[in-house]
Amino acid sequence: MATYVYETIPQSPDEKPERFEVQQSMKDDALTAHPETGKPVKRLISGGYGFSVAGSPPPAPSHSCGGGSCGCHN
After folding, report:
1. Which of 18, 39, 55, 65 could serve as 70's disulfide partner, Cβ 3.0–4.6 Å?
2. Could you give the CA distance from residue 16 to residue 31 in angstroms, rounded to a whole number?
3. pTM for this model (two decimals)
4. What's the pLDDT score for residue 61?
5. Helix, strand, coil proportions of the chain in percent (round to 5)?
6. Tens digit of pLDDT per residue, the chain (74 long)?
7. How far is CA 6 from CA 12, 37, 56, in A?
């Protein structure tokens, strides 16, 4: 079973999206509605470095490695 992150789709400008996780088989179709409220939802994509739930670039490293000696490129 995989754990998927979903977010409700706001139906008005003042409504905030709600995120929740669901365990599903990878063979299962993505949900289209929140299992408890029935609100429309979308499945979010997340992954390794370079990806984020919101689709924005990852934050800059917050550490100092002394000129790149650790392999990073500051």
Report:
1. 65
2. 19
3. 0.61
4. 57
5. 0, 25, 75
6. 899 999 999 999 999 999 999 999 999 999 999 999 999 999 998 765 544 555 555 556 555 555 556 665 65
7. 18, 13, 17
Q: Is 6 helix (H, G, I), strand (E, B) or coil?
A: strand
Domain coordinates in residue numbering, the chain: 2-44
What DSSP line would sit under 27-54, residue for residue? TSPPPSB-TTT--BEEEEP--STT--TT
Phi, psi for 4 (deg, rounded to 5): -110, 145
Determine phi and psi for 12, rounding to 5 degrees. -150, 160
Q: How many CB atoms lie within 10 A of CB 60?
A: 6
Amino acid of residue 32: T
